[in-house]
Write the structure tokens for this entry.
Amino acid sequence: MDERKESQPLVIKNATFITSASRAEQFITPDKPMIAVCGKSNVGKSSLINMLANRKKLAKTSSEPGRTRLVNYFDFGEFILADLPGYGFARVSKTEKEKWAKTLDAFFKKKEQIAHIFMLVDARHDPTADDRQMLEFLHYHILPFSVVMTKADKLSRMKIKEHKKAIASNLYLGEGNLLATSSETGLGKAELLEKIRQVIEQSQITESDFDEEE
Ligand SMILES: Nc1nc2c(ncn2[C@@H]2O[C@H](COP(=O)(O)OP(=O)(O)O)[C@@H](O)[C@H]2O)c(=O)[nH]1
Ligand SMILES: [Mg+2]
């Protein structure tokens, strides 16, 4: 029954920057599966993207407020990756927070264009109130996501296990929905690529289902 094909690991050869969008009218309509990366500022979104791309400076790292308020799109060959604006900045005005929420809300509303979301949390800490709000947002929009723990290189293997359990329980998720990663050491990179490969495969199945109905 379950005919398993030999699945080739996903190899990223030439990831490139496409464009940035500061508001909904500038969002692109992707022609292949789109995966979005979200999480608070400085959690390691850009670093994770660079790790996946095998490039040091595809996405600009360290918080540069101007650029982190944008949705940055990257072409990864078989999929599009969207780097969403970070949250949890201490020094932003109410107006800016509202603008951020509006942008993200508009982004998530186009849910048929989103194949999967990686929500990043710091492996070292309990999720913040902002993280939990983000998660509520994802639940509310019924979006498929996984939680990616970043900066795991700063923890011992023992602590990673411990924190995974704690973060999962804090977010009311099963531990299987969490993946520990490090952009410094490449920990979890293969698992992330495997998850992406499955997401792409799944979205192709869904697409061909639609084709048949036409
Ligand atoms: N040790 C360690 N530092 C990281 C890791 N990922 C990101 N950082 C550092 O955390 C800071 C913020 O990273 P960045 O990718 O710009 O976060 P973003 O704001 O979410 O895009 C930078 O100084 C990175 O070098 C990681 O896996 N391990
Ligand atoms: Mg960034």
